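QA checklist item 7 of 12: single-chain prediction sanity check.
[x] sequence parsed
[x] length recorded as 636
[x] structure emitted
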Amino acid sequence: MVPLPELLDAVVADLRGAHRPGQLQMVELVARALDHESTVLIQAGTGTGKSVGYLVPAIEHVAHADPGQSRVVVATATLALQHQLVERDLPRVIEVLTPLVRREVNFATLKGRSNYLCLARADGTGDPEQQVLDRTATEKQAQRVNAWAKTTFTGDRDELEDVSGLVWQAFSVNSQECSRGSGCAFVEDCWAEKAIARARAADVVVTNHSLLALNAVQEGILGEHDAVIVDEAHALPAALQRAATDELSVDALSRASRRTKAAGCAEEADRVQDAADALEGALTVWDAADGRRVVELPKAVLAALSTVREACGLAMAALRRATDSDPSGRQRAIAAVESMHDAAGELLSADASSVMWRRGDRLVVLPLDVSGVVREGIIGERAAVFTSATLQLGGSFTTIAEQLGLRAGQWEGEDVGSPFDYAAQGILFVPDRLAAPGPDWPTSQALDVARDLVSAAGGRALVLMASWRGVDAMQDALSDCVSDLLVQRKGEPTAPLIRAFSNNHRSVLVGTLGLWQGVDVPGPSCTLVIIDKLPFPPPTDPVVSARQSAIDSHGGSGWMQVSLPLAAMTLAQGAGRLIRSDADRGVVAILDSRLANRRYGGYLRRSLPPLSFMTDTAKVAQALSRLDAGYSQGAD
């Protein structure tokens, strides 16, 4: 066997990279977890080369077992990283390592079923209830999808560009709507089934957090595997909560009724519609605030939910007997009423371990604690590696370990550092004399500080605001001093903005939470990151308030154990946008004086990259001016 350090050296040489002690340490940590079926949390800062750090030991691990005897699942939070692994990192690493290990390793990628073209829908045997596409842009998009459907070799939506979610829904189904087990004529050629088969036969499977969570609840999607590696692991708890969420609405009930009628069960469809009307009536007279946690449902709503559950149960039974109807339409109807039946059941049985809230005509419920899904469904008896650039909060892995359901003594955590010299490359600036944020935030004083810093930097700034109101205020403050001001708009994609920001070295990009992660712009385009205030979750957030209340009731501090770590995680992600390479220089300016003046400021600063700390506005502006002059002399 070739030693792991030599395998890593071969890959790094092929990539024309540099020796990184943290990357070698990561390789050894992952290899130990794989060999001993243990659990390890690894914080690997930007520039460490995380993907190579876990792919080298993973490939060595499966290559020394017979085909099918050892499989590794790698899960990411973002499509960008998934694409990087499948299109660049895995092919290169496997190519280099194949002559050095026992056998060639194969890999596959797997996404949720709705990411693949449904041949039944493309053939026109789809849902007559689906929304009719209009005669303008969406019709042209539908024509493009139809043309692509005849030439694709994967059926993967990612092969298409600029196709709206509305159009794609007309050509896809989710796992509940799929009629593969109900006589679908296209099952042998199904793109999703082919992708599942490839994944189950692969040594390494690349997937996403959502599918990993679904597999933990519905075993068998990913097939047997003896190890799981979770990249961007800080985002896994949120993905688990999304996967465990049940939602019921008047509109969804009405849609289920229409689908049931189209499948030939008119009487049961009328019952479901009557239940929808009953729920709408109960919600109309209920004055619960939108988006706020609901501890107890009123009697009228409970009665309506019982009616919903009964009507949907009868509809499911009738639909399963209606074997003469179109299999695809019948399965979509079953999926619709089953989803409403299950959601009503979860709402009726909700207790202190659940979180409920209302939003318009929708009721939402999810478990308060999803850590057991990780412990039992994702880890189980497997080796498990969780890695990210931001796992340590306040200098400790304890918070993320608790969120993942890891018990003391059953895991180890290591920070392998970063190859960057943060203290020499960057400054953390906090104007400690500014008034702390209040109802009138951002104040004119805070906006003036931001304006001065942007002017000193010559643009080159990513400005991250905590609210859409803040985005508008910052746009107004910068509009007359920045010639190329890019502003995020609610509901619009961010990728074009990020590309424009990267390409124009003097532009300024202003946005909110959608830009706190995923912006990777090394070089002179981003020498200043401004964060207007500490990103504490709103106290009205139903999940946050429920978690805090549960901790408070047991004598703990819900704010310290929930809101503060969440703010630390988001803040670390935002601050991490600055230093993306060993050549980067610049300033992270956090305009919230609480970071310097409050006791919890130290906890938050320990969660950030170790930049040099400064509070003097004039000195920081001078540093930015010098940096701008240097880039200007070099013609950027």
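[x] summary fact logged: The two ends are 48 Å apart (CA to CA).
[ ] second reviewer sign-off
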